[in-house]
Structure formats: C-alpha cells, structure tokens
Amino acid sequence: MRNVDFTPLYRHAIGFDRLFNLMEAGNVKNSSGGYPPYNIEQRGDNYYRITMAVAGFAQEQLDLTQNENMLIVKGERPAEEGKNYIYQGIAERNFERKFQLADYVKVIGATMENGLLHVDLEREIPEAMQPRKISIGESKLIEGQE
C-alpha cells in the first residue's frame, strides 16, 4: 500500500483546518511551474505571511488581487528588445501565482523590500463561530418546558 504525501498541498492552503479543504486546494492548477519561489509563514494564531522572491520586478509591475477565497499575484515586465545575453540566469519572465485561502482569511497588507514581496494575511473568525465557554450551573428554561 502506498502512503500519500500531502506536503505539497500545505504550500497552497493558508488557514485551512480540514483535510478535505486541503485536498480541494491541491486541485487548483498552477501554471507558473514553481516561479517565483515563495515561503508561507505563520506569524501568530490568526496571522500569516507569504513572501515571494520577485527580484527584477518594480512595485508597479506587480498586481495583487483577492477574489473571494483566491489570492492572485501577477508580475508583468515589458519586453526588452535589443539585448544579446551570453548567459541569462535571472528569470525575468511574467508570472501568475494563485493561492487558495481558507474562509475568513483576508489580505491586510503588502510590502516590498530587497526584492521580496511580503503579503500579510489575517484570519477573522466571526463572533458567532468562535468557541464560547459555557458555565455549569442553573439552566434557564423557556416557560412551559420542563
């Protein structure tokens, strides 16, 4: 019997608590083939940060969009003509990277520093869905019920 490694799915699922949601997030096709490289960091119980290496891109060439539970990061560079590279090791191609976000996760900010794009996320669980402490004591029944 084979064991299934879900590790690659964890990279694309931010704030998910259930395995089925992780599996669903793994079905999102990503055409960028690993470019640009990125990290996902948990900075607290409800805070996350995605850091992407976007060397060579100016802030104006990057576009971040959150559409429901999908975060889309695009980078577009104008075509440079007239250059004759002997060796080109710096990837300067356009990209689009998609991240499936869990319910109640929203982008709270983005900064760019030393060729790294930092996208900060927060999970805000509505008050009605948060766990609440129930004290043991007298029960308040509605009149007519016993």
Concise overview:
The chain has one domain (7-126): Immunoglobulin-like (Sandwich), CATH 2.60.40.790. Helix content is 10%, strand content 34%. The protein has two helices and eight strands; from the N terminus they run αβαβββββββ.
> Which structural class do the helices and strands define?
mainly beta
Binned, the helix content reads: under 10%
In DSSP terms (H or I, runs of 4 or more residues), the helix count works out at 2
> What value does the average pLDDT take?
79
Backbone shape:
elongated
- The CATH architecture: Sandwich
Our estimate of the beta-strand percent is: 25-35%
Strand order of the largest sheet: 1-6-5-4
Biggest sheet record: 4 strands, mixed
CATH topology: Immunoglobulin-like
Radius of gyration: 22 Å
Low-pLDDT sequence parts: 22-31
InterPro entries: A-crystallin/Hsp20_dom (IPR002068), ACD_IbpA/B (IPR037913), HSP20-like_chaperone (IPR008978)
Protein name: Hsp20 family protein
Family: Belongs to the small heat shock protein (HSP20) family.
Keywords: Stress response
